[in-house]
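Bumping with the actual sequence this time:
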Amino acid sequence: MPDFVTLRLTWEPRMLSILRIIVGVLYMEHGLAKILDFPHQPNHAPYALFTLNPGLQGLLELVGGLLLALGLFTRTVSFVLAGNMAVAYFMVHAPRGFFPLLNGGELAIVYCFIFLYLWFAGGGEWSLDRLRGATSAPAASPSRA
């Protein structure tokens, strides 16, 4: 039976990929709902391309979620989406009140910080970035003299 360290080192990059795939698919679902009305939401607004929401926001969610799920341009997409979620929180949720639980912004905060994590961590073992040779290994930490 392998020890915990071996198990952890084996599954750490795989779990990063699983997290990236699940978050990407869930985020893409928001874009699908805004652009294609699937799945149908009772408060659906018709898609209008030249608007902030659902226009630009829906495109970022759909395309960004798809790229994340595939693990393609993971770091760049994650950086853009983290900023997108920060802007969404401060434009929509923060004016409703201070506490995220009460202003409905907890999901925007969670997405923002997961995207920040993916910006630093990369796409993981199961990503198209890895296949195309993008650097997904963390930089060597500076040694202390």
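The tokens above came from a reply further down the thread. The radius of gyration is 18 Å.
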